[in-house]
Specification:
Layout lengths: L3 E7 L7 H12 L5 E5 L2 H10 L6 E2 L2 E2 L3 H25 L4 E4 L10 E2 L11 E2 L7 H9 L3 E4 L2 E3 L5 E3 L2 H12 L4 E8 L17 E2 L1 H10 L6 H13 L4 E6 L9 E3 L3
Parallel strand pairs: 1-2, 1-11, 2-8, 5-8, 11-13, 12-14
Antiparallel strand pairs: 3-4, 6-7, 9-10, 13-14
Helix pairs in contact: 2-3, 5-7
The structure holds adenosine-5'-diphosphate (ADP) and N-acetyl-L-glutamyl 5-phosphate.
N-acetyl-L-glutamyl 5-phosphate binds next to helix 2, strand 4 and helix 5.
């Protein structure tokens, strides 16, 4: 039986609220064993773009990333956000190491090809894009890698990449070396039957129930690509996927996805 590795993905509003981020990281520091943190920050990036006079544009959950937008999201995700998270983890006794995909060639993505829509400098990736050997070495040295949404193409070009996709791809890539648990942490208590009622957490979701909930409209918006990704990761060897409140990761209330 291989060792359990917990991969946490944090996004939504939590990452941009210093008090909530600090609370999440305090809980994360209490989680024993090897772990990886992947963070987004899309909400805060949109706010920063607006403050700088650039109108954010999202299509099907992905940001249209022109050169000016890429500069700003790189500064925001790989700079301010990543380093703030690392500093707060260090304060909590966790030896965190902040990385973009270019650092140590940890994630090499491919620029999304232009079809109907030109997404600009957006990277696509899968588990083969992840330098699992490096992550295994870092984890073996007792470090906690903190990955942001910036990747590279190996030709000197930085790319903006969806953070849920990074988390799933890293989880699948590491499933050969560890028993991987993938935790998607956000501001709600899990996947809910009523998105406005935090007490309506669905404890267990199979692929069949997921299709029913999607068809009825109970699961919608950003939750759909998240769960599509998550079920694909389960099929590809990840042992367990959990959807949970970022401020209650050590509490039992959460949604667990099951293969059957
Ligand atoms: N059934 C559901 N349960 C929980 N959240 C849901 C559900 N259906 C839709 N959502 C929405 O999905 C959002 C999470 O997706 P997203 O915004 O992409 O998250 P993040 O920014 O954390 O990656 C929630 O904030 C919620 O508004
Ligand atoms: C290409 C693309 O869409 N990249 C995302 C990366 C950040 C992210 O995924 O943030 P959350 O997890 O907080 O949504 C973006 O710029 O919004």
């Amino acid at each position: 039986m291989s060792e359990v590795l917990k991969i946490f993905k944090i996004g939504g509003g939590i990452i941009d609220d210093l008090a909530q981020l600090s609370e999440f990281l305090t809980e994360l520091a209490r989680v024993p064993g090897p772990k990886v943190l992947v963070h987004g920050g899309g909400k805060g990036a949109s706010q920063m773009l607006q403050d700088l006079g650039i109108e954010p544009r999202m299509v099907q959950g992905r940001r249209i990333t022109d050169a000016a937008t890429l500069d700003i999201v790189t500064m925001f995700y790989a700079g301010k956000t990543n380093k703030q998270v690392v500093a707060l983890l260090q304060q909590r006794g966790v030896n965190a190491l902040g990385l973009s995909g270019a650092d140590g060639n940890v994630i090499r993505a491919a620029k999304r090809p232009v079809k109907d829509i030109d997404y600009g400098f957006v990277g696509d990736l899968d588990a083969r894009s992840v330098n699992a050997a490096l992550l295994v070495q870092l984890l073996g040295a007792g470090l906690t890698p903190v990955l942001c949404a910036i990747t590279h193409d190996g030709q000197g070009q930085l790319l903006n990449t969806n953070a849920d996709t990074i988390a799933s791809s890293v989880a699948v890539a590491l499933a050969h070396s560890y028993e991987v648990e993938l935790h998607f942490c956000f501001e709600k208590n899990g996947v809910l039957t009523d998105v406005n009622d935090d007490s309506s957490v669905i404890p267990r979701i199979t692929p069949g129930l997921y299709q029913e909930l999607k068809a009825s409209g109970a699961i919608a918006a950003g939750m759909v690509p998240k769960l599509d990704n998550a079920f694909a990761a389960l099929e590809a060897g990840v042992e367990k996927v959990v959807i949970e409140n970022a401020l209650r990761i050590n509490d039992p209330v959460k949604t667990v996805l099951c293969r059957s």
